[in-house]
Automatic annotation (TrEMBL):
Alphabetized InterPro entries for the sequence: Rhodanese-like_dom, Rhodanese-like_dom_sf, STR10
Sequence ranges assigned to domain Rhodanese in this UniProt record: 15-65
Name of the protein described by the UniProt record: Rhodanese domain-containing protein
Stretch forming the signal peptide: none
Source organism: Brassica campestris
Coiled-coil regions listed: none
Length: 97
């Protein structure tokens, strides 16, 4: 779902448009759209996590991670069930020996 107040919320959180802002999502597509909006808003020091959290590997964010690794940030909801399907489908219909 699109957040119509996204840029307003970022401006409120980071009023200095010289602030360094890193934007990330699961696959990298939504964050790319967000970076575009922020650039039009006047932010120039922007970072984008190419491929999103799903491409991250263990130890990519050691300075900022809490007890949960950021690479697992998007697991849950529909993404979690899609992942389970990807694991189960290759075995569907195989005969057990």
């Amino acid at each position: 779902m699109f957040n119509d107040e996204f840029t307003l919320q970022v401006v409120e959180a980071f009023p200095d448009k010289k602030s360094k802002v890193l934007v990330a999502c699961g696959e990298g597509l939504r964050s790319l759209m967000a970076i575009s909006k922020l650039h039009r808003e006047g932010y120039k020091s922007l970072g984008w996590l190419t491929g999103g959290f799903n491409r991250a590997t263990e130890g990519d964010f050691p300075e900022i991670e809490g007890p949960e690794e950021l690479r697992f940030a998007t697991i849950g909801g529909a993404s979690y069930y899609f992942l389970k399907l990807l694991v189960l489908l290759p075995n569907f219909g195989k005969e057990s020996r």
